[in-house]
Amino acid sequence: MKIPFISKGSKNVIPLVRLVGTIATGGGRQKNLNLAGVEEALEKAFEMEKAPAVALSINSPGGSPVQSHLIYRKIRYLSKQHNKPVLAFVEDVAASGGYMIAIAGDEIIADESSIIGSIGVVMASFGFDKLIKEYGVDRRVYTAGKNKVTLDPFLPEDEKAVEHLKTLQLDIHAHFIDLVEMRRRKLVDPDENEIFTGKFWTGRPAKQLGLIDGIGSLEESIKNRFGEKAKIKLMNPPKKSPFDLLSSKLEPADIANGITEALEGYALKKGAGL
């Protein structure tokens, strides 16, 4: 859907939905990004009849492939239902599942230093079987169904279980690739540029590869497209609790950890992650 340029004299209000955090169900001290948490804000944004477009601000290293796709589908559904184009703006990172959400935008704009890509699937774990053997610990698990416990970190690695896991990962990866190819018609030959290998790039190389459409900031881009009088209306402002205030000194470390996870490829503890 083409995003229009509006007369500079117009007083447009552009609804903005922030999509921030590791993509996973549930919450915690650092609130996760999932459909349940942003659905209401997305609906309100698209229901603003006079708004010429909806803006998304994305900052996520990825996570759950299911929640990533649910958010993607919700954005595309609302865009078609209300006939409104979507502008996606990347902050620090839109990697893995974060990039899946970004491609729900009709245009993607990022900073030169933003991290883009990591189109792949990952699952990480540890092996403790040698450790518990050394300390004389017995692992006792009782199941009905021979495949009920697979890839138990306290048991030696099972080749058949690993093969099955890789089959699942390939299926999720293929779905991710299909979405990217459908939404990003400007992609430079993926086979020649390792686009679907899990590799990631900063803003300018990502633009050259067709992963994004432009370099810039949210406010600058909104003003250029919709006029100097255009206003941005945040639909889901962050809610501060007393605990947030007490833990505010930890935020820089949390941000650093999030970026590190994005660069390494975020892995969910209980399943394959994007």
Task: Summarize, please.
With 274 residues, this protein is an alpha/beta fold. It is 39% helix and 15% strand.
Taking Cα atoms only, what radius of gyration do you get, to the nearest Å?
Answer: 21 Å
* CATH class type of the domain at 13-122 and 189-264: Alpha Beta
SSE topology string:
EHEHEHEEHHHEHEHEHH
**CATH level-3 fold name of the domain at 13-122 and 189-264:** 2-enoyl-CoA Hydratase, Chain A, domain 1
Net shape = elongated
Oligomer: single chain
SSE-based structural type: alpha/beta
Largest sheet report: 8 strands, mixed
The named CATH superfamily of the domain at 13-122 and 189-264: 2-enoyl-CoA Hydratase, Chain A, domain 1
Estimated helix fraction: 25-40%
Question: What descriptive keywords fit this protein?
Answer:
274 residues; alpha/beta; 2-enoyl-CoA Hydratase, Chain A, domain 1; eight-stranded mixed sheet; 8 strands
Walk me through this protein's architecture.
The chain has 274 residues and is of the alpha/beta class. It has a domain at 13-122 and 189-264: 2-enoyl-CoA Hydratase, Chain A, domain 1 (Alpha-Beta Complex), CATH 3.90.226. It is 39% helix and 15% strand. It contains ten helices and eight strands. The protein has helices at residues 35-46, 65-82, 97-102, 129-134, 159-183, 190-193, 203-209, 218-226, 242-246, 251-264; strands at 13-20, 54-60, 86-95, 107-110, 115-117, 200-201, 214-215, 231-234. Strands 1, 2, 3, 4, 5, 6, 7 and 8 form an eight-stranded mixed sheet that branches. It is elongated. Residues 245-251 and 253-270 have low confidence and may be disordered.
